[in-house]
Please model this.
Amino acid sequence: MLSYVTTNEGKVREARDYLDAVESVAFDYTEIQADELGPIAARGAREAYAHVGGPVIVDDAGLFVEGLGGFPGPYSAYVEETLGVERVGELARRAGATRAYFRCVIAYCDGAPFEATPEPIDYGDRRGHDLAADERATATTDDAVVAGDLPVRLFEGAVPGRIVEPRGDGGFGYDPIFEHDGRTFAEMATAEKNAVSHRGRALAKFGEWYQERSD
Model:
């Protein structure tokens, strides 16, 4: 069974559109500070794998405003909690920086190595990388090797849009200020949003690869 380590059941429902069997697991993994989404998701996937003891996926996502140097990017959740969504929208519009995109990285770890494919692999700091697979599989988050020795496959999805005045009552986070194809994410029904979302695009890539790995 594949575990999606998240407390957001909406993410799990979305994942089931692309995966035959996936369950949600609540686990408070470490969210490190980094300038890119990949290392954050990869570290979380390693800790989640050590906790669950089986195949896991973890995701990290953010809103990247091009004219603001990619802000808030990997810090989107923190900025939402501190500045607020409407304030971010105001900053972008005042700067004339309305071009933006949502990005999501799905990180997968099952304790085993991967064959070469176009998707990147995060090896962390490679400490203990030569340990036997069964030693890695029984590691806990207190073990030094967990932080960097397990390979993690990364799958990215992105969707372009622009920053607008808040519109719509649906969605969550930055959805009311992010317009794609004439409507904000908050104006779309859940199924419509999932069909074009950054997370959906990352899950589609992962689902195709995971089916081949499972065969």
Remarks:
- The chain has seven helices and eight strands.
